[in-house]
Here is the input.
Amino acid sequence: MTRSCVVLLSGGLDSMLAIRIMQEQRIEVEALNFKTIFTCCQDQSAQTARDLGVRLTVVGQEDDYLDLVKSPQFGRGKGANPCVDCRIYMFEKAKRFMHQIGADFIVSGEVAGQRPMSQKRRDLDRIAYHSDLEDLLLRPLSAKLLRPTLPEREGWVDRNQLYAFEGRSRKRLIALAKRLGLNEIPTPSTGCSLTEPKFSKKVFDLIDAPGTSRRWDFEMLKIGRHFRYDSETKVIVGRDAAENDQLRYAHELPDATSTAALVPENFLGPQALVIGPRTDEAIAFAASLMLRYSRGFDPAQALVRVDDQIINASENERAKSLETIAMT
Ligand code: SF4
Here is the structure.
């Protein structure tokens, strides 16, 4: 009887190898790619699935994913990345998908000891245990270092043809890829902005601010320059025409937490959003930030439209010198 598995496909070398190893053993493969609002455009999973001849399903996060970003149970990596919690979340989704399509087990390209945050042996065990997959989660690249799983014990998969890779070196993985006929070797990248120090700074700023941070607020971390005015108030300033359009669009959304949108009325410059209490001081500060990033205007004449109102913008020393929370 032909067995089938769901392989978590990131588009990276490890998941490509996991698929190829299963194909070598004549196991049917369904690829599953998990996307979050923090996954960036470097994701090559669609191309990889085409190259490997497997069907790909892409699943997104739900809002409960943000709860684990805000307070992960198993800590974070060097940035805001809660990798162990995130992997557990992914595998829970994968398990649901496995049941939906009637597959027999789950496969992942994790390599023991490769990533400090989520691939230490202890973390691999934790992830399998907490996602309730334990016996049905096969890691073919390190399987010989781990306890035999059900697919191995039942002979659906030949354990002798699995591997014992451990550690960070990619040399032996690349050699295996060549042996298995994979000629396009992707460069290593997590493709996840939560691992980036500058982006993480904005995530921590948002999490530490009082009040609730919703999906909208997390989405906005990808747009513009962010300035903290006070503990409750933040200003986002667009960096180019595309971001100005995005800010205007975001402000109109029903779940927006922005309280004022500022547009230059008689000069060329960026747009801005105020997030937090809509006080005169916060609006004057946001208008001054717009002037900081504008050229060729007369400071005495500069006007800014705030929703339906027009105000005089004036330069403010703090807005001139305040650092951005972090530039993306
Ligand atoms: S790098 Fe990002 S997407 Fe990958 S496991 Fe960590 S938090 Fe999740």
User: Anything to note?
Assistant: The two ends are 51 Å apart (CA to CA).
